[in-house]
């Protein structure tokens, strides 16, 4: 498929995991791709096998508004506009309300929520011109709660409602806004979960498709929501979770 030929896609969190897989997926489907991250070495690894004529990288702390504006303006100038924004950068910490200090709580929100807001805000003028789309990375943790993941859960809940609010505001103006909601996926961010045998057994008891998701699974869902195949879909938080959210939580008999 070449669903994104002539399109320009900006992807955050592109140095590893789902972001790296998204860079490769959109590039394979013909897009010009601008890969953003704070990890310079990881960005270089992400794009080393891709066509340099259709690929650009930029160091960008997405919680810094000046850096975001520069990155967006540079991306638009490099490829003549922006058609798709993939808001994917994210961090996670463990802790409940007593053990999570305020500085940590704010840092999680700065990356997971403020960064998504800032990227959308500064990309929106270009997306309005192109009739574009935004896809964000929320989580099953933005739909329901986890044990001991207060800051992360709160941030992903905010992402889910940011998507819904923006879909309402910008659907009439031609821009669609959606999100994927992964469960634990085999990425560097989730290694503490996916490499732990006891936690893995508990996950497999909940997953109908009995494996962890891969970055490529998530990138495929991002590409679908960004494409014209999803032209009548907006405001959706799409679980990409191996059937986890289909369960009501009761154990198998």
Radius of gyration: 17 Å
CATH superfamily: NAD(P)-binding Rossmann-like Domain
Largest beta-sheet characterization = 7 strands, parallel
**Given this structure, which CATH class is correct?**
Alpha Beta
pLDDT below 50 for ≥5 consecutive residues: which ranges?
Answer: none
> Strand percentage, roughly?
5-15%
Mean pLDDT: 95
Domain module count: 1
Q: Tell me, briefly, the overall form.
A: globular
- CATH architecture tag: 3-Layer(aba) Sandwich
CATH topology: Rossmann fold
Annotation, overall tally of beta strands: 7
Class from helix and strand fractions: alpha/beta
Protein name: SDR family oxidoreductase
Domain Ketoreductase: 7-183
Keywords: NAD, Oxidoreductase
GO molecular function: oxidoreductase activity
Description:
- This protein has 253 residues and is α/β, with parallel strands linked by helices.
- The protein is built from 8 helices and 7 strands.
- It has helices at 17-28, 40-47, 65-79, 102-130, 150-170, 191-194, 197-204, 215-226; strands spanning 8-11, 32-37, 55-59, 84-87, 133-137, 176-182, 237-240.
- A 7-stranded parallel sheet has the order 3-2-1-4-5-6-7, sandwiched between helices.
- Helix 5 (150-170) links the parallel strand 5 and strand 6 (176-182).
- The protein is globular.
- The relative contact order is 0.14.
């Amino acid at each position: 498929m070449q669903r994104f030929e002539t399109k320009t896609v900006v992807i955050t969190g592109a140095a590893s995991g789902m972001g790296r897989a998204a860079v490769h997926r959109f590039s394979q489907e013909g897009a010009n791709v601008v890969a953003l991250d704070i990890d310079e070495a990881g960005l270089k690894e992400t794009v080393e096998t891709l066509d340099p004529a259709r690929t650009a990288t930029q160091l960008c702390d997405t919680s810094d508004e000046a850096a975001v504006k520069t990155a967006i303006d540079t991306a638009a100038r490099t490829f003549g506009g922006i058609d798709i924004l993939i808001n994917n950068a994210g961090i996670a910490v463990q802790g409940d309300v007593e053990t999570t200090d305020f500085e940590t709580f704010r840092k999680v929100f700065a990356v997971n929520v403020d960064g998504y807001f800032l990227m959308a805000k500064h990309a929106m003028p270009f997306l309005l011109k192109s009739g574009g789309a935004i896809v964000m990375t929320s989580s099953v943790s933005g739909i329901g709660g986890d044990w001991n993941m207060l800051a992360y859960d709160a941030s992903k809940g905010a992402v889910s409602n940011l998507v819904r609010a923006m879909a309402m505001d910008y659907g009439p103006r031609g821009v669609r806004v959606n999100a994927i909601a992964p469960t634990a996926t085999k990425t560097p961010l989730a290694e503490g979960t996916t490499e732990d045998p006891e936690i893995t057994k508990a996950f497999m008891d909940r997953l109908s498709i009995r494996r962890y998701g891969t970055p490529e699974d998530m990138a495929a869902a991002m590409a679908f929501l960004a494409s014209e195949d999803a032209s009548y879909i907006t405001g959706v938080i799409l679980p990409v979770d191996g059937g986890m959210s289909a369960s009501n939580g009761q154990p198998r008999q």
